[in-house]
Amino acid sequence: MSPRLSVAADAAAVAVGADAVAARLAAAARARNLPLDLRRTSSRGLYWLEPLVEVATPSGRVAYGPVAPEDVDGLLTAGLLEGRPHPLCQGPTDDIPYLKRQTRLVFARAGLTDPRSLADYRAHGGYRGLERALSLGAEAVVQEVITSGLRGRGGAGFPTGIKWQTVARAPGPVKYAVCNADEGDSGTFSDRMVMEGDPFVLIEGMTIAAFATGAAKGYIYLRSEYPHAAAALNAAIAAARGEKLLGPDVLGAGFAFDLEVRIGAGAYVCGEETSMLDSLEGKRGQVRAKPPLPAHVGLFGKPTVINNVVSFASVPWILAEGGAAYRDFGMGRSRGTMPIQLAGNIRRGGLFETAFGVTLGELVQDIGGGTATGRPVRAVQVGGPLGAYFPPALFDTPFDYEAFAARDGLIGHGGVVVFDDTVDMARQARFAMEFCALESCGKCTPCRIGSVRGVEVIDRIIAGEQVAANLALVEDLCNTMKYGSLCALGGFTPYPVMSALTHFRADFEQRREPALAAG
Amino acid sequence: MHVHETWSPERAAEIVAAQAGREGALLPILHAIQAEFGYLPAEAVPLIAKALNLSRAEVHGVISFYHDFRRHPPGRHVLQLCRAEACQSMGADALAARARDRLGVAWGETTRDGAVTLEPVFCLGLCACAPSAMLDGRPVARLDPARLDALLAEARG
């Protein structure tokens, strides 16, 4: 049997040279007349080690990384194919502490399977959830999801099972299942990893949701910035149709469900669910007032179950293993696992799926290894561009919806972006307002006008003009936006702004150089 | 490199007709037309409006809402640089300034020789390997000044 190597084909791995490494491996093996079974898989999510090359040995997989094309010859000479030592050797993959410390439920297959292979997916536990769901019946499926305590992983944290129950009970012959795959938060990539690396788990999760709620048609609203995910999803949908896992009679169980990928067009606000529905309908992606809830009046006015990619992708495990097993992970009202994404200026950036309750300090310092630049950590933004900036003084905050809320923050979609001590927090506050101004849908005034005024006022502070009065104005403006905006874009932009003001006030009051204002 | 067709109302009508029966067809139509011609020519608006029984204002409103839709032809290459926080934490602002300076363009503009359009993007999902960019749909990460210069040279070459 030829030695089996795997190299990720994930967009982030490719972005740092995985294709070139794979090509060099193939060429070098040919030149040495070495037989080689080179597979392109999903990524483990250990991104600081990408391009990661893994070799299957009798005692398990051994990892090498980060590998550059010019390392390949030396690796082969050193005995890569037998898993022999080399400066890039990370030892057995399963023993890498970053991976070993995780609880991978949703990402159990990450790095192990070919994303386009339905056979691979099935061989690794795929479609057991749907099979059990079909045997339980729709109502029991909803109960199982309620029991699991799963809350929306897109950021809002609404109980998924309750949402499904609402849609299931909504009257009407036409219902939709919509996946919000508009993962726009900086510092997040877990949805991308699911869609590129394990697309069948999303398809299976949506199929279970459709069965439970009575939806016959599903859409995946995917951001245009993820072309690799689009290709992987479309290939997986075609494969699923081919095996009657989608279509007019799913698995012969007498229910119909089919899926379509729709591509967004670069609007961050379309990650807000009602704006996403308008966009799917072919309109400007403007936010709708709630109520009515999308569960009652959603896509094209029909009852619609909307969940984030990771929420749907969590469901197959919950159905296969039982809601109670899932609920046993976590703390407080945050049950199960969360795929946390460590990003930005961090030594070991990647995906870290773990039960709720790990502290921010453990994530950033122990697991992430501090900053990539080696400088002290100064600020950590959790939860995307609408999330608060935390100083190291708050590193004891456990990763939990309520604990973050209690400290005027949010966990959002689980992105953690680290900044070193060169960061200028007044600039970060200004950026939050600028981003809101750029992305506002324009429907409500606090967001549309407030964000523009916010940029102007912070510019004055940066220029040193009437700093105390202008800081008071920013606080007042943040209150107006927080309480007066229709959706989380205007409503949560105050989180990064106010947290910067609260925890890093010196950056606003004692500007180092007036020249900074010109930047 | 993007190879785009020159505007043809007949071809545009075919594209519209192929998609018009779908639910919420407008975005798929706009994407398909832009993929074919590189941008959304003004001439396309009445054609789409008629096919979908919308007003021209409604179609224009949708086109102008979304950052992706271009109303002018792009350069032969499109370079998107991420401006979001994770990339900022790794020096994206300085890289963007370098790119604008080297290319002699502001965000959204195309170099005089028509080679490169420089666009901002807010997150490519490559945040653990920041800073990142996309050149004609190809992701590139762990950028530094040298890798950026190589990308710029490739785009101009």
Structural features, described:
The complex is a heterodimer of chains A (519) and B (157). Chain A is α/β, with parallel strands linked by helices and 519 residues long. Chain A folds into 4 domains: 97 residues, Glutaredoxin (3-Layer(aba) Sandwich), CATH 3.40.30.10; 210 residues, Rossmann fold (3-Layer(aba) Sandwich); 91 residues, Ubiquitin-like (UB roll), CATH 3.10.20; 94 residues, NADH-ubiquinone oxidoreductase 51kDa subunit, iron-sulphur binding domain (de novo design (two linked rop proteins)), CATH 1.20.1440.230. Chain A contains 22 helices and 16 strands. In chain A, the strands form 4 sheets. Chain A has a 5-stranded mixed beta sheet with strand order 2-1-3-4-5, with helices on one face. A 5-stranded mixed beta sheet of chain A has the order 13-12-16-14-15. In chain A, strand 3 and strand 4 form a beta hairpin. In chain A, helix 6 packs across helix 13. The longest helix of chain A has 18 residues. Chain A starts with a strand and ends in a 10-residue tail after the last helix. In chain A, 58% of the residues are buried. Chain B is α+β, with helices and mostly antiparallel strands and 157 residues long. Chain B has 2 domains: 57 residues, no CATH class; 80 residues, Glutaredoxin. Helices cover 45% and strands 11% of the residues of chain B. Chain B has 7 helices and 4 strands. A 4-stranded mixed beta sheet of chain B has the order 2-1-3-4. In chain B, a hairpin with a 2-residue loop joins strand 3 and strand 4. The longest helix of chain B is centred in the first third of the chain and has 12 residues. The termini of chain B are close together. Chains A and B meet through helix 1, strand 12, strand 16 and helix 17 of A and helix 2, helix 4, helix 5 and strand 4 of B.
